[in-house]
C-alpha cells in the first residue's frame, strides 16, 4: 500500500463530480458522500483498522482498541457545492498515508490512534457547518438538528435513517469525546500564506469567529408582465441592496469578511415576481464583537431596504462559533517535532475549531499554489501533499510514542 496521499486522492477523483457547476458536489449522507464513506471503510479495512460509525454519523477507524488518550487525526469527505478536490479529502487521504508510513517504519503506537471522518463539515446540504463535530460536542441541540432540512425537503433525521443511523441517538457523545487525547487535522491551505512563506507545510494558529444568518424577505408574488413597475413588492430588490450593504460593511470593519454566497427567490421563475427570497449571510471577524457588529449593520441595512419596498424581513441565526486559538502547548510540540515550519492563522472554519473547545487541537496546512478554495481551482502539488503526509506521520509517530 504505497500510493501516498496523492494516489489515494486519485482513487476518488470521479466521485461526486459536478458537471454543471464544475468541481465536486458531495454533501452529508448523499450518494457521493456515502460512496466516499464506503471507500474510506474499505481503505481502513485494508490497513487492518477497525471501522465504526459513532452515534452522530462520524466514521472512526482505529489502530489499536478504542480507549482514552487516543491520538486522533482526520477531516471530512463532503464539499461545498462545486468545491475543490482537496478541502477535506486531503486530510483523510493524508491520515491513511501517514498510517502506511508509520507501518513502514515498524512504528508500534503506545496509545490508540484513530482516523475520523466528520459528517457534513461544509453544511452544504443541511446549512449548519461542522455538523458532525457540533453534534459530537453538543454544539447543536439534537432535536433542532434532526429537523434541519435540505433543499429537497428531506430532514437530517430522514437522511440519517437512510444511512442506517438512529436519529434518536444523536447528540453529545461523552464516551467518544473521552477517547480523544488530542486531535490533529491536516488541511489544504485556503489562501496563499504558505506560498508567500515559501513553505510546503505550516501549522495553524487561529480561526476567525464566524457564523451564518438567513434573511428572508417577504413580498408579493405576482405576474412579471401584468404588474406595473409602480405596483410591486419584489423581495429580490431589498435582497440585492443587502448584497451591496454586506460588501460595504465588510470593507468597513477591519479584518472582517461578509459574504452572500446564496440567494434563493421563491418560487423562482423568470416571469414571476417572487413572493419571498432567502439570502444567507456568512460573516467572520477576529472576535465576537466585530462579527456581531457586521451582522447588526447588515441586518439594519436589510430592514431599511425591506421597508422601502413594502416587504417584511425575518432574520434567523443558523450557526455561530467564536474565534479559536489552537492549543499552544500542542503547537509547540508539533513545531519542535517538525523543525522549521511556519505558523499562520486562517479565516476558514474546521472541525478542529469545534473540537478545540474540548481537547488540545492542532492543524497542519499544505501549500495551495492558487490560494483558491471552495472552488474547482483549489490545488496542492503532489510533492507538497506527500510532504504534508510525511509531516503528519512524524507528528502522529511522536504523539503515539509516549
Ligand atoms: C468551511 O470550510 C468554511 O470555512 O466555511
Ligand atoms: Mn471548506
Ligand atoms: Mn475543510
Ligand atoms: Mn471548513
UniProtKB/TrEMBL annotation:
<dbReference type="InterPro" id="IPR002933">
    <property type="entry name" value="Peptidase_M20"/>
</dbReference>
<dbReference type="InterPro" id="IPR010158">
    <property type="entry name" value="Amidase_Cbmase"/>
</dbReference>
<protein>
    <submittedName>
        <fullName>N-carbamoyl-L-amino-acid hydrolase</fullName>
    </submittedName>
</protein>
<dbReference type="GO" id="GO:0016787">
    <property type="term" value="F:hydrolase activity"/>
</dbReference>
<dbReference type="InterPro" id="IPR036264">
    <property type="entry name" value="Bact_exopeptidase_dim_dom"/>
</dbReference>
<comment type="similarity">
    <text>Belongs to the peptidase M20 family.</text>
</comment>
<dbReference type="Pfam" id="PF01546">
    <property type="entry name" value="Peptidase_M20"/>
</dbReference>
<keyword id="KW-0378">Hydrolase</keyword>
Amino acid at each position: 500500500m504505497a500510493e501516498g496521499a496523492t494516489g489515494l486522492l486519485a482513487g476518488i477523483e470521479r466521485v461526486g463530480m459536478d458537471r454543471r457547476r464544475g468541481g465536486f458536489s458531495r454533501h452529508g449522507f448523499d450518494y457521493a458522500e456515502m460512496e466516499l464513506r464506503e471507500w474510506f471503510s474499505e481503505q481502513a479495512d485494508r490497513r487492518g483498522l477497525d471501522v465504526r460509525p459513532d452515534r452522530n454519523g462520524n466514521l472512526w477507524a482505529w489502530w489499536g482498541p478504542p480507549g482514552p488518550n487516543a491520538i486522533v487525526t482526520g477531516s471530512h469527505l463532503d464539499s461545498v457545492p462545486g468545491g475543490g478536490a482537496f478541502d477535506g479529502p486531503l486530510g483523510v487521504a493524508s491520515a491513511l498515508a501517514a498510517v502506511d508510513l508509520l507501518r513502514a517504519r515498524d512504528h508500534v503506537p503506545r496509545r490508540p490512534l484513530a482516523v475520523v471522518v466528520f459528517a457534513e463539515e461544509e453544511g452544504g446540504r443541511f446549512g449548519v457547518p461542522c455538523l458532525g463535530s457540533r453534534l459530537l460536542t453538543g454544539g447543536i441541540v439534537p432535536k433542532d438538528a434532526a429537523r434541519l432540512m435540505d433543499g429537497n425537503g428531506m430532514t437530517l433525521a430522514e437522511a440519517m435513517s437512510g444511512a442506517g443511523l438512529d436519529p434518536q441517538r444523536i447528540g453529545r457523545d461523552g464516551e467518544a469525546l473521552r477517547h480523544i487525547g488530542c486531535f490533529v487535522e491536516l488541511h489544504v491551505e485556503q489562501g496563499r500564506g504558505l506560498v508567500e512563506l515559501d513553505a510546503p507545510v505550516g501549522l495553524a494558529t487561529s480561526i476567525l469567529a464566524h457564523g451564518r444568518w438567513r434573511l428572508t424577505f417577504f413580498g408579493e408574488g405576482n405576474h412579471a408582465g401584468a404588474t406595473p413597475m409602480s405596483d410591486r413588492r419584489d423581495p429580490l430588490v431589498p435582497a440585492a441592496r443587502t448584497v451591496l450593504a454586506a460588501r460595504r460593511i465588510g470593507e468597513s470593519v477591519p479584518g472582517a469578511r461578509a459574504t452572500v454566497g446564496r440567494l434563493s427567490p421563491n418560487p423562482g421563475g423568470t416571469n414571476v415576481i417572487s413572493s419571498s427570497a432567502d439570502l444567507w449571510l456568512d460573516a467572520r471577524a477576529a472576535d465576537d464583537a466585530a462579527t456581531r457588529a457586521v451582522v447588526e449593520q447588515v441586518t439594519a441595512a436589510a430592514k431599511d431596504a425591506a421597508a422601502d419596498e413594502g416587504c417584511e424581513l425575518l432574520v434567523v441565526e443558523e450557526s455561530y462559533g467564536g474565534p479559536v486559538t489552537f492549543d499552544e502547548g500542542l503547537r509547540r510540540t508539533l513545531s519542535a517535532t517538525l523543525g522549521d515550519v511556519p505558523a499562520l492563522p486562517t479565516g476558514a472554519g474546521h472541525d478542529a475549531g469545534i473540537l478545540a473547545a474540548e481537547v488540545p487541537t492542532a492543524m497542519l496546512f499544505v501549500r495551495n499554489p492558487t490560494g483558491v478554495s471552495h472552488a474547482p481551482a483549489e490545488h496542492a502539488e503532489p510533492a507538497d501533499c506527500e510532504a504534508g503526509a510525511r509531516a503528519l506521520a512524524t507528528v502522529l509517530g511522536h504523539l503515539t510514542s509516549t
